[in-house]
Amino acid sequence: MRLTNLDMDALRSFVAGIDAGSFAQAADRLGRSTSAVSAQLKKLEEQAGTALVRKSGRGLTLTDGGEVLLSYARRLLNLNDEAMSAVRGAGLEGWVRLGIQEDFGETVLPQVLGRFARAHPKVRIEGRIARNSELSEKIASGHLDLALAWDDGSASATERIASLPLCWLTAAEEAPLWRADGNEPLPLAALEAPCLLRTIACDHLDRQGIAWRIAFVSPSLGGLWAATAAGLGIALRTPVGRPAAVRVLDPVACGLPQLPSLGLRLLRSDKGPNPIGDHLATIIRQALRETLPAGWMPETSDTN
């Protein structure tokens, strides 16, 4: 039996089309014509021997075969990109310093470190988990080469790589801590100041005229999760790393402020060209694309 080799460019267009919701938008993101992307999809369906998508209103719906292929396509593309990164950087030697938000310490950092070590065994990587302000300071002072941090509003288009929803969080098994029609101030669980998300929470509560009090302060994210799960306060965070003992509140039903999305940025040192940092940035983006839900991270090039 002759095996069929799937076309990698067609797979990339297929994934981009599903993530974007239409192949017209995917064509724009990929810098190709809509007809070229449609031709790639047709070629992929011929290779797979089955239809992959069908129209559903103005959007697209995956067929059973499309759902199966999409899962494999993401893995194939990630492995392809990792292989190319390894080959192009096979001769790299030296060291690189990475800073990362605590939110991503368990979900993204293990993937990043493992992949980078396999791709570049001659490069030493130093990692640091820290708060947003510290990461920014160490990038500015040259003590870090790369940092994955929240966007405080100063990020450029190239630095911003994802947009994550903010949400109000409370204990999963506890009765509501606070009622909008009650007389008690909202108990807030937060990290020690300065904290970007703490500031966002307080600003939005103030704008809506909701009285609040700091009920619990923690120097670490682990402590914040524990306090929230114990019912000591309501926290504001993204869903990343949320433990099962903590649930998301419906702001409309609870009388809480609607929240914006929070940008995630990849900060780079301005010391000049850094091939090692470039390869590490590629791996970080790949790990995020695998970890974050579709739509949180735009389908863009991995190069900076």
Automatic annotation (TrEMBL):
UniProt-listed InterPro entries: LTTR (IPR050176), LysR_HTH_N (IPR000847), LysR_subst-bd (IPR005119), WH-like_DNA-bd_sf (IPR036388), WH_DNA-bd_sf (IPR036390)
SUPFAM superfamilies in UniProt:
Periplasmic binding protein-like II, Winged helix' DNA-binding domain
Molecular function (Gene Ontology), one example: DNA-binding transcription factor activity
Q: Which keywords does this Swiss-Prot/TrEMBL entry list?
A: DNA-binding, Transcription, Transcription regulation
- Coiled-coil positions are none
What family classification does the UniProt entry report for this protein? Belongs to the LysR transcriptional regulatory family.
Q: Which organism is it from?
A: Azospirillum palustre
Q: Where is the HTH lysR-type domain?
A: 6-63
The protein in question is named LysR family transcriptional regulator
Keyword field contains Transcription: yes
